[in-house]
Amino acid sequence: MSVLEVVLFAILQGITELFPISSLGHGVIIPDVLHWQLDRRNEAFLPLMVVLHLGTAAALLIYFRRDWQSLLGGFLQARGKPDNPSSRLLWLLVIGTVPAGILGLLLEKKLRPIFSSTSLVLAFLLLNGLLLLVGDRLKRRQGGHGLEGLKPASALKIGFAQSLALLPGISRSGATLTAGLAMGLDYAASARFSFLLATPIILAAGLLEIPKLLRMAGQVPLGLIAGAGLLSGLCAYASTWFLMRYFNQHEAAALRPYAWYCIVAASLGLAWKILA
Fold it and tell me: Are 56 and 207 in contact (CB under 8 A)?
């Protein structure tokens, strides 16, 4: 892998991780379309992805640091009792994280072959666009409640929706936003829960792979990979800053542009694969 490709891949990962357009999907499609030498079977690729995810998770923790301080402080003050609002929300985030964590561990090897099929990833990206259109329709309905009305069973269902992002091409934030709306949350509550829910699973995905990274310390360019992680984190922070303002200012049609982007990009990509 070349230095330029690693830099571009880090920027791509950082920007797309929080946008509802699937970072995994773009990480497969764009290198394939542009004929990068970035080989996903290369021994340095896994350490690179680990560090990029840790950079993204660090950006989310920094951006939402006040939320996490409030949640953890409330949890400790209430000694974990679910009647405290902060403690209750933290428990709901734990519940929502469990499905993706378990399914990710169980299905990792079975899902790996999908990453080598650009056509399949494009099909999932098309499905992601349709999912976002569903979320857009749900968002325009009347009513909806805040996070104080979210039940544990609903948080678990949102967690299962997050598991769809194990499929490259399906967006984590798009799936959880849509699921939150389907569970009766209003748009602001669904967006907040979606962004908070992203942090533990992204952080866990990186931390679980650190032992493998340490074992490969002498075989991979750690300086380049560490720099890529920092760059990815900076881009993730910038994209989070942008998205939080975008969703507040364009609530009426916040998901629609991303839905049509996914549908058009996936359709053109599939047409290209068929005609090539």
Answer: no
Residue located via tokens 């070349």: 2
pLDDT tens profile 46-64: 677 778 888 888 898 899 8
User: Can you list the alpha helix ranges (DSSP code H) found in 208-253?
Assistant: 210-215, 222-249
Query: Contact, 70 vs 147, CB < 8 A?
Result: no
For the stretch 144-157, pLDDT in tens is 788 888 999 999 99
Our measurement of the distance from residue 194's CA atom to the centroid of its chain's CA atoms, rounded to an integer in Å, reads 9
The number of residues making up the chain comes to 276
pLDDT of residue 43: 62
Q: Where are the domains of the chain?
A: 3-275
Q: Are 121 and 270 in contact (CB under 8 A)?
A: no
Phi, psi of 209 (to 5 degrees): -95, 0
Is the whole-model pTM more than 0.90?
no
Could you give the CA distance from residue 203 to residue 206 in angstroms, rounded to a whole number? 5
165, 27 in Cβ contact below 8 A?
Answer: no
Amino acid at 19: F
Q: Would you say 87 and 80 are in contact if contact means Cβ atoms under 8 Å apart?
A: yes
Over residues 193-200, mean pLDDT:
88
SS3 call for 185: strand
